[in-house]
Amino acid sequence: MPNTDVDGQPVEARENVKCPQGWHVKKNWTVELNHAVDNEGWEYGVGIQPSGLPLVWNSVEKTYYSHRRRRWARVRWRNHGKLNLEQETLSFLQLHHPVSTQEEGWEYGTIGSKFDLSPQPQSQFRRRCWHRRLAPNKDKGIAPIFLLEGSLGIDLKQQAEKEEGRTSSRSVNKTFRDTWRPAPENTKLPHLPFIYCIFNKPHYYQLFCYIYQARNLMATQIQTFQGPFVRLVFLNHSQCTQTLRSSAAPTWAQTLIFQHLLLYENPQDTRESPPLVVLELWQRDSKGKESFWGRSMWPPVVWLDVQHRILPPMRWHPLGKELGEEVGEILASCELILETESLRRKLPILSVPWKNGVYTLPKSMQPTLRKMAVEILVWGLRNIKQVHSPWLLVECWEETVQTEPIMDFRTNPNFSQSVLFLTLFMPTEEAYALPLVLKVVDNQDFGQQTMVGQANIDSLQPYFCDPWASDYVPPQLPKLSVNKHQLLDYLTEKFWFKSSKAKDEYEHEVDWWSKLFWATGDPKSLKYKDKDYHTLKVYDCELEAVPAFQGLQDFCQTFKLYKEQPTSYSPVVGEFKGLFRVYPFPENPEAPQPPRQFSVWPGKDDFPQQCLVRVYVVRAINLQPQDYNGLCDPYVILKVGQTKLGNRNTYQPNTLDPIFGMMFELSCTIPLEKDLEIELYDFDLFSPDDNIGTTVIDLENRLLSGFGARCGLSQSYCQSGPFRWRDQVPPSFLLEHHAKRKRLPPPLFNPEGDSVFYNGKKFKLQHFESKPPTAQYLGPKKERLALYLLHTQGLVPEHVETRTLYSNSQPGIGQGKVQLWVDIFPKKLGPPGPPVNIRPRKPRRYELRCIIWKTADVDLKSVSLSNEKMSDIFIKGWLFGLEKDMQKTDIHYHSLNGESSFNWRFIFTLDYLAAEQVCVLSQKDYIWSLDPTVMKFPARLVIQVWDNNVFSTDDFLGVLELDLSDMPFPAQHAKMCSIRMMDTDPKWPHFLQHKHFSLFQKKTVTGWWPCQVLENGRWRLSGKVKMTLEILSEKEALIRPTGRGQSEPNQFPTLHPPLRTNTLLSWFQSPVKNFCHAFWKHYRFKIIVGSIILIVGFMLFSFMYSAPNYLAMSWIKPAIRMNMPIKIFTNIVNSPNTSNASSSDITTQHPNLEPTTGHQLKLLRGPMNHLQDIFPELPAPQD
């Protein structure tokens, strides 16, 4: 066949092929050689039945090939202007497709192949598709909902099971509700209708795109961007901006307008979901070759009514080249406006300025330009490897400036030129702020130049300043007045609600840890505040993160250099240290020029500078576990340049919060060795040690900072003592240096040193010290006053910073924190003071001796054979945290009244840290553990009273817990012992509270303490125990040895077995006592009532028995007949036997006689007056 198409079907000769309508031939037919063909364009193959045409073609001719072919191609161009805009849009959208009346809509194909509209020789089947349109009935108000894929999210598998009857019968609503879930991806939905979108007429729009500027365009060449231009694509239309010359931030300030755009969609839908605007950034080199840079897409703002239109603000849109790769940003905005019948005649709808052959931005969008000065402090380059002679290129808009090359980068990486100056017109609005590009270029051999790295500064707004302002902070005098509310609170706490806790005046050594604990509010500081020692500041973040210190980059900032667009994973190729200051020029040319901002800086002749660095690593907090037991064994490694300090043998075993208390001292050269790396590793016995985390400190920033970060200011100037002045120079020298840096006159002190004239004001020491200080070791008045003034300038105080550790294995995720501080001492200023001692505190070993004497009023839990309550009492005791060393007394059997006697001694050994009032325990978790685990517990003695049971578990009777450093005074008698003694925070005045004391101070104490038990959420008294507590040091315990319980050596004091009554034999030894105890305890009320009844009954019986006789005698009254009165002579009375008896004695013995004068007795009248009754010794009367 002379001429065929690609499928092998015969066609007419190529000379007779005409162009379609609207096209013309640009280049005639030529052989196509851009395929796998030979030099003449032929390709060969073997015919295969049934069509007889080859399926595979080769470019090399073989003898068995039966077919050959070659392609002819020509170039045709479209005739612009033949079709209007609407026809082009319709052609692009393929909305019209003329169907011939002879075509029947068949598709042809073979088994396993795709169907084609044209029949082929190998075609075996044909098919065509029939469609019909479904429309809802007008009487139905609800439109039909088809089962579309993913529309309702119905589980089709369950729906099919329901149709086949394999699912349980449920209501339709419940079935739909239970099967609501996303449809699977491989779901096939057969017999679903097509959805057609039919519009009655198209709508016309106009698109306005406002393009201003691009930034953050990273380039690997010295020239950032060559010939940049923007191509905007919307639907099937595109336009380009003008091409600019090379620029770091190309600025077009141009408007692209698309007129009479055709959209087949409802305007309301267009406003909700408009087509995307595609903006592409291209660059064109000197040869005219275009290269794609990046693309950005976003929807335009749609306005259906021009009257309500608001100009859209410009926004920064990211430019991406690949998915997730950002190559820059562009400042632009777009709006899509609907054309109405009244606005079609006006093209364009909006009036946009026309200038130099392009549409510029509207006046409301054009930024306001002002002449500005940009000062650039170029300090130096850091951490750049394999460079010879680098230099810095600064680009801002279309202005560039560069530094002199650094000739010897290895010995001095600072620039010889310190300040660069730029003058340009800059927008005053922040949205149009000009970016600034920093490029580091290296001069290599033979005149070659390579770009090392680049840093982009998006906006210079943070560097705007007032050139006439001063950053000097005037000193603020402290307020000496006391708030009345504070005074009232103080008096209330002092004289009324005062804590009853023990004020432990245990004289332990005051160290730096007391200072730290007081700063953090830890109770471990004890009475540190009362000793008038000044405190320090503890920051919960890095010192650079404290807002008041400006990241310690007030002198110069650190800008990281990249070779590509910076991301979280982009490698840093170097650093540039510098700073920027931007300020406006006066509008009046005759006005004085503003002063330069970088006229005062540290001398570059002093750099590189030898420094002594002391690193104090205090402790780590919440480290990431590294071992199988959920703990780690951390140790510290320090790196500065080639220096490495630290020892893996100093690891802290089995802890996530290690206390290091280590000081590292090293020498380094700044800025050659400026990065201090602090690494924490996990010690492993066999495998390599794991890196827990690392933190990096820039020593150069701290040395150059004006906040005095090289050595924090202490709160007091002490010449000796535990808190001696650490710096090399006194406070007066620092104040003079600070005044010079702030461009102030030097301070003038009076000869006494108690006043100073500083910055035009006079300050006195009494302004800061209202009363004489009580702290010891203070320096002279001059230095103290200078230190007070330094503290008012916002300088870095004596501190401890908390730095987060990061690991390369988990970037961006904290692995714990470490608390430390760094002191930097330039060697040119002389030797520094002695280092601070921050070694961890060591506990002291003590021995606690507890003697259990007796108990009283203990609850009775058991019942004896005589149905009376009793208990077999014994006592357990241990120290909190040392439960393995629990001890117990012997058993006091058959206690009927809660009383028991033991005379038993407990002995406990403890390692006590007096400064923190805790016990330290170091023990291994397992037998095979390599190192012990250190734990801290409160020094608390636990005493428990139990009831012994033979066949069941013992009954708990009560508990007593005593804090050895804060325990209540015991009662002297059991009756005085109450549960109120154990109240920890009673709401009573302090003079009514029970006093507390520290056993470590009092050494020994004896008395009664209450035992308590928890019932119904409240504590109640359950018994009392008498003990003797004694604390001894390790040396004292060796001098006075004693044994546990009653074993030898039984001394200090000697404990004898208690005298206990055997209850089984007590009935025979003292039956009355036991009987009374047994009956009186249970029947005392009945016995008392019975006794009262018996007494009253006996009295009634006696009255009834003697009442008749008495009443009879009272009623009868018989006359008593008696003889004449007997005259008793004196001699009878004064007989020899009774001569010594006086009348008073006689009358005393005989009340019936009445004394008379002349020693005569008178007989009294009465019913029973018989002489013999009166004087029984007299003889009977005779006639």
Automatic annotation (TrEMBL):
Coiled-coil regions listed in the entry: none
Database matches in InterPro entries: C2_dom (IPR000008), C2_domain_sf (IPR035892), C2D_Ferlin (IPR037723), C2E_Ferlin (IPR037724), C2F_Ferlin (IPR037725), Ferlin (IPR037721), Ferlin_C (IPR032362), Ferlin_DSRM (IPR055072)
Protein's GO biological process: membrane fusion; plasma membrane organization
GO annotations of cellular component type: membrane
Region called Disordered, residue ranges: 1139-1159
Membrane is among the record's keywords: yes
CDD domains in UniProt: C2D_Ferlin (cd04017), C2E_Ferlin (cd04037), C2F_Ferlin (cd08374)
Entry's localization field: Membrane
Segments forming domain C2: 188-317, 355-473, 592-712, 830-978
Pfam families: C2, dsrm_Ferlin, Ferlin_C
UniProt keyword Signal present: no
Bilayer topology: Single-pass membrane protein
TM region positions: 1087-1107
Keywords from the UniProt entry: Membrane, Repeat, Transmembrane, Transmembrane helix
PANTHER family named among the record's database cross-references: FER-1-LIKE (PTHR12546), FER-1-LIKE PROTEIN 5 (PTHR12546:SF34)
Name assigned to this protein: Fer-1 like family member 5
Species per Swiss-Prot/TrEMBL record: Phyllostomus discolor
